[in-house]
Task: structure prediction
Amino acid sequence: MNKRYIGRFAPSPSGSLHIGSMTSAFVSYFEAKHNNGLWKLRIDDIDEERSKKNYAEEIIITLEKFALIPDEIYFQSEHIKDYQNYLNELSEKDTYFCDCSRKTLQQLPQGLAGSIYNQTCLEKNLKYGAMRLKADEMKLDFYDQHYGLIKIPSSHKSDFIIKRKEGFSYIFCCVIDDYLQKITHVVRGSDLTYSTPQQIFIQKKLGIISPKYMHHPIFSLNGKKISKSDQGEPVIPENRFEILMQILKSLHQNIPKNIRNYNDLLTQALTFWDNSKVSKSFDIAMD
Ligand SMILES: [Zn+2]
Result:
């Protein structure tokens, strides 16, 4: 029962694609295509504050210019009903509402996967607020296809939010999306490593088979990860040859010689893609 490999790239359309998100796009693409699989695109466009429709469109066009053509495009905003249906399937005894203020929550200690909640609202029997999933039975170890066994200290265990008053949490949507898109392999940046146990836990609660997880190192600038908020410069498709070169170098791939055009470079890069060469550190320094 060899299931076909189905991978995905799920950028948040809060800004243009930068070198960090392009790295994720390429790694997930190479992994999927190297396994004769499908590569699907997901647009995380439900966080209305951050998402802007024009970014979603821009992302699709940019990927096209890099000749990364998804086998499916999925918009989170079209699946709000699905999120609610799956949320309803969770047992009431596994969840509770929390009405702690933002200020209170900000004072909580920060763990690897977000703040560590002190269960203040566990016994309050609230009818409204943010919904938390009880995490007592959550397993914190998981096997990562790149880094191997990931172990998170149990002190980082915390009842986490799956739905806010404003909408579903990223963690929860991601699980449902991966399921609905039939994703078999999740390939993404190492900044999301520690949210994986939470996602595996939700899958378990919903009786969903977990996909395999592979995280890859992310670019960091002076030890800080590059994200849209601290402005990784948007990639310029006209520079696609240099950009792919830079990404291949940072991932320690064989750089094909005597290639001058982008499409040949992409073909060669895919042919010789070797994930075992990629660094096992969590980030790659960028000058
Ligand atoms: Zn609370």
The first strand starts at residue 6 and ends at 9.
